[in-house]
Structure formats: structure tokens, C-alpha cells
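pinned: reference chain
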Amino acid sequence: MAEGMAQSFLATTAFTVPVIAIFWFAMMAARAGVALYLGARLRDRTYGFLGGYVGAISVMSLITHVLGARLQERLGDGFIYLNNLMHLPYALFYLGFVAGYFGGRARSPGWMRFQRVLMSSYAIALAWLAFDAVTGANGSAWAILGCNLINLVSSMVLAAGAARDHRPGAREFLLASVPLLLSGLVLIAQFLDGTADAGGPTLLAFRTGFLLHVMILLIALSVRDREQRARLG
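pinned: its C-alpha cells
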């Protein structure tokens, strides 16, 4: 199954020629740079986590879709495990971003306990991935995918509670999560169906959804900051 997941990323010749992949990488890298600049300028680590999250996604795309064929030829089955490993950094940056975005609400005892459980799950998934790399098994890919899905859904649950309490930027965060959730579900449906040869349009849908996700997140951050200043003023 993990091999099929990796192949689905590579079987995208109609929609993912290197020029398109490089252009998408450049757009994402630029947005990551903007987030990192704003984080340094505003001294807000939330923007830094956003930059790390977007940057990790863009680097994963560059390695998988631009350098993937060459790396797979050189690494063989090792590329499958490299591909799976690259799903961990952006997930951890996303956790940090969510915690920074919602501030005190994300530091509540219940949420902190949940974060510790999720971090432990990621540690187990990483150990499982190492075991798979040694034994040639494939099960860890689904463990990582499950952790990432829980990560996303839990952030939406946190945002929904914050929106109910009229917290600044909560509704905008929910809006930003919708395109990512929908495009991610398209990828999961493809993996479950085993249709690796349908990677082209599916990957295009994911890229479009993620681009919208990042654009709305930057808008959501500006809305959150403006509303926070208005309440303090």
C-alpha cells in the first residue's frame, strides 16, 4: 500500500511535468518566505511555524515530483520510506502553528493532554517507519496518514470551539481548513481505491486546495491580529 502511495505521487506525467512542479514549489517557497519575514518583523512565532509548515510541504513536493524519478532510481524501495518520512515535518510545524494561532485556548489542560497523545502517536509512527525500512514492510504509511488526519480534524474542532466563543480569527481559520480537508480527502480516497494511475488530476486538486488553504491562512492571521488589537485598544 505504501508503495502504491509513493507511485501515485510519481504517476502524474499529464499534470505534473517538472515545469509545473517547480512553479508550484516556487509559489509555496515565496509564501513560506513571506510568513517567516512577518514572523521576524512582528516577533510572532505563529508566522514562523506557518512558514515552516508551508516550506516543508514545498520541499516535499520538490523532492517527490521534481527529483522523485531520479531518487527512486537511485534509492529503490528506500524512496518509499523517504516519501513517508517527509510527511512528518510539516505535521509538527502545523501543530506549532495551531498552538500559536489560538494562544491560551490551545494551552488549556485538555488540549495539552491531547497534544501529548498526538505527539506520542507521531513518535510511534516514526519508530514504525524505521522498523518498516529495516524489514521492508509498509504499515507505517497508514499510521502517519491517520495521525495527520487527526491533526487536521482536531485543529478544526479547536477552531469551532473558538468560533463559538467569538475568538479573533477563528472563523477565518475554519474557512482556511475547508479546501485542505477536501483536497486531502480526495488523496485518501485515491489511496484507498488503489488508483495510482489517477495521480495527475488528484494531485492537481490537492495543489489547488493547498494553495487556497495557505492564502486564506495568511488572511486569517491578519484578521486575527487586527481583531486582537481592536479588543486591546
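why pinned: The domain at 2-232 is CATH 1.20.1070 (Rhopdopsin 7-helix transmembrane proteins). The two ends are 54 Å apart (CA to CA).
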